[in-house]
């Protein structure tokens, strides 16, 4: 199973990614802005999702269609 970003680049554990769209975080009033750098991602069992932590939100799961490898 290969996890790919929105441009088709393969992602691995520990990679850094950039958001390509503003995303509202469910359960909070936070919005992650476009261009936000997210470091040290972790792959999940699904090819279209990654786990990560940001400064504002911990334990976040993001869809790979909104990410670009940094």
General description of the model:
- It is a single chain.
- With 70 residues, the chain is mostly beta strands.
- 0% of the residues lie in helices and 31% in strands.
- The protein has no helices and eight strands.
- The strands form three sheets. Strands 4-1-8 form a three-stranded antiparallel beta sheet, with no helix packed on it.
- The radius of gyration is 11 Å and the shape is globular.
- It starts with 16 loop residues before the first strand and ends with a strand.
- InterPro entries: YjdM_C.
- This is Alkylphosphonate utilization protein.
- Pfam families: YjdM.
Write a concise keyword list for the protein shown above:
mainly beta, three-stranded antiparallel beta sheet, 31% strand, Alkylphosphonate utilization protein, YjdM_C
Order of helices and strands: EEEEEEEE
Tertiary shape: globular
| Count of strand segments | 8
Global Rg: 11 Å
Low-confidence stretches at least 5 residues in length (pLDDT < 50)?
none
The portion of residues assigned to helices is under 10%
If you average the pLDDT, what whole number results? Answer: 94
Strand content: 25-35%
- Strand neighbour order, sheet with most strands: 4-1-8
How far the N terminus sits from the C terminus, by CA atoms, comes to 21 Å
Q: Which structural class do the helices and strands define?
A: mainly beta
Biggest β-sheet: count, sense, barrel? Answer: 3 strands, antiparallel
DSSP helical segment count: 0
């Amino acid at each position: 199973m290969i996890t790919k970003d929105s441009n088709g680049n393969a992602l691995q554990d520990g990679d850094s990614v950039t958001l390509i769209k503003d995303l509202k975080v469910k359960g909070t009033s936070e919005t992650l802005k476009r261009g936000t750098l997210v470091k040290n991602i972790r792959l999940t069992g699904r090819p279209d999702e990654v786990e990560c932590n940001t400064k504002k939100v911990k334990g976040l799961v993001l869809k790979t269609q909104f990410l670009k490898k940094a």
